[in-house]
Structure formats: C-alpha cells, structure tokens
C-alpha cells in the first residue's frame, strides 16, 4: 500500500475527476456502493467494474496503482469466496463486488486530497475522532518514512536475510519498537506545536468548492445510472436476467473509448 | 483476526447496519468520555498509534510475507476508551483506501476494538499474575488468546450472515437462463416489467432459480476450517512480534507499558532513554 503515491495522485492530479467536488465524489461513491450491494447478477456487477475501470482510464490515473490497490480487497475476497461460496458463480460475484467497491474507493482516494475526504465526516463525528483522522494521516507519512529508514539501517547493520528468519524477525520487531518510541515523542512535539498555534477543540478542514460543476453532474449521473440499473435488475430479476448480456456492452464501449481517447490525450 | 476482509454486499443489511449502529454509539460514548481537557492532549497520540497500526498493516515482516496488525500493542498503550476511537479511525482509513469494505467498517471497528480491549485486559492481568519480569510471555499469551477469541467472533459473524444469505432472494444470474435475442422483440421491456413471469413462459425457469437461491448460502463449515487452519500461523507470528515489541518498550520506557499512555504526563529528557526510571 503506497500511501505516498496515493497522496501525490490526489494532490497533484489535474483530471476531470480531480476537478469534481469532494462531496459529489462521495455521493457518487455511496451510490455505486449501493449498486454493488443490491445486485448479485455477475454480469451487472461486472459491468460496474468495467464502468469504474473506464473512469480510471478517462481520468488518466496510474492504472498499476489503481488496479493494484483494488486487487488487494479482491484477493482477500477470493480467499473468502474459495472458503465459503457455494458455487463458482457466487464466488465470482463476491470477488467482483470486492473489486468494484475497492475500485470506487480507490478512485475517490486517488482524486481527492485526504483532508477533503474527511471534511464532511468531521461534521458528524465527535471532534476527537475527526481530529484523530487528520492526525493519523499526517503521522502515517512520517512513520512510513521513519520505518523505511529504520529497516534500511537494520538490513545494513544486522544483515537481515531470508536464511535467518528468527534474526530477521527480531530485528524487524525491534525496529517497530523503536518506531513506537519515536511516535510517542512525535506526538508530544505535535501537541506542543498545536497548542502554540492555538489548538483548543478542533482542527478544521475547509471543504473545497467544485472547480468544474459539469464534472460533478457527470460523476453523480454515472453513479445514479449504475444504481438504477442494478436496482432494476434486482427488482425484476426474473424478467431481466435472461437479457443480462446486454448490460456489459455499454460499459465495455465506454472503457474502450476512455482508453483510446486517454492515449490520444497523452500524445 | 483484526479486520474482516469481506466485501460490501455479502453480509445482510441487518448485520452490517447493526455493526454500524453499535460502533457509532461506542465511538460517541468514547468521544464524550475523552472530551475532558486532560484527554485533548491525547489527540496526537491517538493519531500516531493509529498510524502505527496502519504502517504495520502495510509492511511485511522480512522475509515472511505476512502483515501484522499491532492491535494488542496499541490496546496496551491506549487503554479501552481511546482504543474504540483508534479502531474506528483505522477502519475508516483502510476502507477509504479500498482495504476492506465500507459497510463492514462497523463490524471491523467492533472486532478491532474487542481485540485491543481484550489484549489490554489480558496483558495487564498476566503481568500482575506473573510479574513484570515476564512481559514477553504475558504479551505473547495475551495475543494468542485474544486472537483466538476474535477469530471465533469473526466466524460467528460470517455464520450469522451466511444463515441469512440462505433465506433471502438474491436475484443471482443462472447462465442457462440467458437468451441471446432482441429483448424488444420478445416484449420484455413493454410487458415483462409489468406482468407476471408466466406470461413469458419463464415460470419454470424462475422456479428453478428460486429453488437454487433458497439452497445457496455461505459454507460456514468450510470457512471455519480454512480460518482455523491458517489462522493459528498468523496468531503465532503476531504473538511473537507483540512480545518482542512490548518487551523492547518495557526495557527502554517501562511506564508506557505498565501504566499506559494515559499516565500522568511527563516529558522525557533528550538522552534519557530510560524515561527517568
């Protein structure tokens, strides 16, 4: 999980999805999630995966990063499906549900700076929880860098290798212990700095406004379409399931167009 | 077992919505209790411990390809109230990075909180019983027992969800039902939406599909077998890492382990790594 690459994509990207407002993207994310939840038709859920892949391609997001992150929940879902699904079809739907929901979350994460993702959440959760979310994100970068340096030092000093798993494990665990102590000192320094800057009850993240209202409409419209299709196919499954093969056709064309125009845009 | 890697939409609505409801009440309660002034200074601490769990989850132990969670370590350091908040924060951040479902954030928070609180209670009980010289043993035993209990809780959650899945109509696709013809010519859009299935001669197929749906459900026995076969390997690794980390911290800065991070605030003097003890 390369959190640094996720943050770089979210803050430095300039695509139409980056220009959409965080609130629109979160609403669209909730709608796509609902679409994933309500339907168990493999072709309908697979269509949503295609549609989300088209969004990745059209926004020019790093495909290896986006699909790599989405593959993580899909891999765990595969283990769950192998362990518990009654048949191959159900197992495939479980994996596709994980891939779709994961990809939707990844698209939001790759196109929205973290404080903006949590700005709406801050309004509804207790202040200590909202503050902790922001502090967690900031601390994660600092600790990842520190841990990476510590592991390099451990490798250089104690010669960690696959041939000595016990020694490697002990060295890694001690590096984690050192990181823990460092993190406590860091939290004390953070608190001092926050108090000096006037922190009393809440860190406020100001919600960003939309740079392109048309992008907001497009994002939400796609999500509404996905939910409507999913709900319709669930409610009228008996009548519509025989024609499920029609559903993936549109997302497949959208994906193809996004790839073609995306490549032209790169030239 | 730390967190549930079950995708969105697999568990029934009542289960994950119930998890969310209990979690929101628990987090609100923990937030209320931690609104006292002396707790405000723990916000950065909460952030770094949550971040530490995230870092551990994103880093594998060399050379074993396994990601640890450090939930027991975090529980020992934070105590029960802040543990609930840290668990919620970690579950939300993981879900927003695609690592775990959004609907299962509630259940994930409950599992992680249970792990942290159980680990905290068991560790301190064992330290009291065995003495401060047996920190590693106490930490390893507390972690093993905690993970065994929370893994059983995870299997219980899937059992609850699986039983519900067998009873509900899912609308899943049966490949034999597919008809590769123009749906407009067969009138599915003009008639099919508003008339009974028998009008289309699909009554039998629908009946068969319904029967298949009624008999389909998550196989809890197989899931439990896989979890209880692979799980203990993870428990042992997590127990070893927890023992080594807490043993190291207990040597270098004992107050953090034996009193906890909510102990009376005391600045450490640079260079005095023993924390004045």
What is the fold's blueprint, element by element?
The complex is a heterodimer of chains A (267) and B (277).
Chain A: H1 3-12, H2 16-19, H3 22-38, H4 42-58, H5 63-84, H6 88-111, H7 114-124, H8 127-158, H9 165-196, H10 213-235, H11 237-240, H12 249-266
Helix pairs in contact in A: 1-6, 3-6, 3-10, 4-6, 4-12, 5-6, 7-8, 8-9
Chain B: H1 13-33, H2 37-40, H3 43-57, H4 71-96, H5 105-130, H6 135-167, H7 188-192, H8 203-215, H9 220-252, H10 254-258
Rg calc of chain B: 25 Å
Structural class, from helix and strand content of chain A?
Answer: mainly alpha
Level-1 CATH class name of chain B: Mainly Alpha
With helices defined by DSSP (H or I, 4 residues minimum), what is the helix count of chain B? 10
Note the overall shape of chain B: globular
Number of domains of chain B: 1
What helical percentage do the residues of chain B reach?
A: 55-70%
- Distance linking N and C termini of chain B: 35 Å
Structure description:
The complex is a heterodimer of chains A (267) and B (277). With 267 residues, chain A is an all-alpha fold. Chain A has 2 domains: 3-113 and 209-266, no CATH class; 125-196. Chain A has 12 helices and no strands. Chain A is globular and about 65 Å long. Chain B has 277 residues and is an all-alpha fold. Chain B has one domain (13-166, 204-258): Arp2/3 complex 21 kDa subunit ARPC3. Helix content of chain B is 65%, strand content 0%. Chain B has helices spanning 13-33, 37-40, 43-57, 71-96, 105-130, 135-167, 188-192, 203-215, 220-252, 254-258. Mean pLDDT of chain B is 75; it is low at 189-215. Chains A and B meet through helix 3, helix 4, helix 5, helix 6 and helix 8 of A and helix 1, helix 3, helix 4, helix 8 and helix 9 of B.
List keywords for this structure.
heterodimer, A: mainly alpha, 2 domains, 12 helices, 80% helix, globular, B: 277 residues, mainly alpha, Arp2/3 complex 21 kDa subunit ARPC3
TL;DR of this structure?
With 267 residues, chain A is mainly α. Chain A has helices spanning 3-12, 16-19, 22-38, 42-58, 63-84, 88-111, 114-124, 127-158, 165-196, 213-235, 237-240, 249-266.
